[in-house]
Write a structure and sequence with these properties.
Radius of gyration: 23 Å
Shape: globular
Structural class: alpha/beta
Order of helices and strands: HEHEHEEHEHEHEH
Number of strands: 7
Number of helices: 7
Strand order of the largest sheet: 4-3-2-1-5-6-7
Length: 242
């Protein structure tokens, strides 16, 4: 009986098993793509800033897209959204599900409107049913620039990587004085406590990579009435208003 010899190939480290078609761009193609993207980025930022400028007093909500209506933080976001709009503040959200939907639901049920800055994604994110005034973005960073453009207060509910990214972005802008000192409110002591312990024990005490005063740049609370009080006392961001 004749046997077939199987060829053994030596595995090449860091080389994909599948063959990927290589595409080469000439200088003219790159220049065309730069102009195309630059134009879209510019238009999105202008669109977002013009949208924000319609609301002289605003609060931006951040938080998980995964929290359901029966979650206690979803309910707190609904409550806070309703109370803030009754005080004359527009609530700006990312327009999606979870905490974003909760904030829009609160303002919609109390004041009849919801403002959402939605992101175009191939999965997960769809604009929630409580958004009456929406703006669609292709790029995450243009959306984030617009959402932090001129809010009087930033409120962070429990969330994932996106929420952390948005929190550290604004915290750094305030710390480095790139934007004025603006109230940063963290909702949910049980959620934020481990991170704040990390700030104290690791960043401050062990490595000295932050200052003690940096820990005064944000508030932590579970009381939505306290958030309303902080918001009412916040200074207007008049440097951006026309």
């Amino acid at each position: 009986m004749k046997t077939t010899k199987i060829k053994r190939y030596k595995k090449i480290t860091n080389k994909p098993d599948a063959k990927i078609k290589k595409e080469f761009f000439i200088a003219a193609d790159i220049e065309k793509e730069i102009k195309k993207r630059s134009s879209r980025i510019s238009k999105e930022i202008e669109m977002g800033m013009r949208a924000i400028n319609r609301y002289p007093k605003s609060v931006t909500f951040f938080g998980s897209a995964r929290l359901k209506p029966n979650n206690k933080y979803y309910k707190k976001a609904v409550e806070l959204g309703g109370k803030l709009c009754q005080e004359g503040f527009a609530v700006i959200t990312g327009g999606g599900p979870g905490i974003m939907q909760a904030g829009n639901q609160g303002t919609f049920e109390s004041c009849g409107f919801g403002i959402g800055f939605n992101i175009e994604l191939p999965f997960e994110q769809v604009i929630n049913p409580f958004v009456t005034h929406g703006v669609d973005f292709h790029y995450f960073f243009t959306r984030k620039v617009s959402m932090v453009f001129s809010a009087e207060v930033y409120v962070y509910f429990p969330g994932g990587f996106g929420t952390m990214d948005e929190f550290f972005e604004v915290l750094t802008l305030v710390q480095t004085k790139k934007i004025p000192r603006v109230p940063i409110v963290l909702v949910g002591r049980e959620y934020w406590k481990p991170l704040i312990n990390f700030f104290n024990k690791t960043l401050l005490d062990k490595f000295g990579t932050i200052s003690k005063s940096d820990l005064d740049l944000f508030f932590v609370t579970d009381d939505m009435d306290e958030v309303v009080k902080i918001t009412k006392k916040a200074k207007m961001r008049n440097e951006y208003k026309k």
